[in-house]
Write a structure and sequence with these properties.
The chain is α+β, with helices and mostly antiparallel strands. It has a single domain, classed as Transferase(Phosphotransferase), domain 1. The chain is built from four helices and eight strands. The strands form four sheets. Strands 1-2 form a two-stranded antiparallel ribbon. It has a two-stranded antiparallel sheet with strand order 3-6. Strand 1 and strand 2 form a beta hairpin. Helix 1 runs antiparallel to helix 4 and helix 3 runs antiparallel to helix 4.
């Protein structure tokens, strides 16, 4: 990952995969076994670490703004890379709101960003239900119930925290990394 600054323009540069436009799940044939729970948690945890790096460790920080399954490209060992940085916003700092034209995939952006066009430290935590008895209905049917109930409950709890309408009650991306890291190791 790098940034080039030339004549008042900034370019975000990232390594290119062999086929950067592929969507991983298209490559899984219908007659093949779907990804298991552990692999899915590994991908989710790794993608969240990528968001954390962009937001908290990269300088200047980057708000990704387009997190969705088709923009997460796992390699052969299912280590994910974020792709499609065309909507990324470079240079947002702290809880200072930066006005910006609202862009991204509707339904994958934080409500405060969709309503006001302002980004916060918690804007990237949004894209990640209330009756625990119904949680299994949220799981991919192709798993055919082959997932740990406790792990699913924890994943749903993490998602519910990230989906809070108010940014002030959503977790920081660092907290989501820790929680998903725990799930991917168990």
């Amino acid at each position: 990952m790098g940034i080039a600054i030339l004549a008042h323009c900034m370019f975000l540069c990232s390594p290119c995969d062999v086929n950067p436009h592929s969507k991983f799940f298209v490559d899984i044939a219908p007659d093949k076994k779907p990804l298991d729970w552990s692999t899915r948690m590994k991908i989710a945890s790794g993608a969240t670490k990528g968001l954390e790096y962009l937001r908290d460790k990269d300088n200047p920080p980057v708000t990704y703004r387009d997190l969705k399954a088709s923009n997460i490209l796992p390699d052969e060992q299912f280590n994910p890379k974020l792709s499609d940085f065309g909507l990324a916003k470079i240079g947002t700092v702290g809880d200072v709101n930066v006005s910006s034209r609202v862009i991204g995939t509707y339904g994958y952006c934080a409500p405060e960003y969709a309503k006001t066009g302002k980004l916060t430290l918690k804007s990237d935590a949004q894209p990640y239900f209330r009756d625990p008895k119904r949680f299994p209905e949220l799981a991919d049917p192709s798993l055919q119930g082959d997932f740990p109930a406790k792990g699913l409950n924890q994943a749903v709890a993490i998602a519910a925290m990230c989906l809070q309408e108010e940014a002030s009650v959503r977790p920081l991306i660092t907290d989501v990394v820790i929680a998903l890291g725990f799930l991917s190791n168990n």
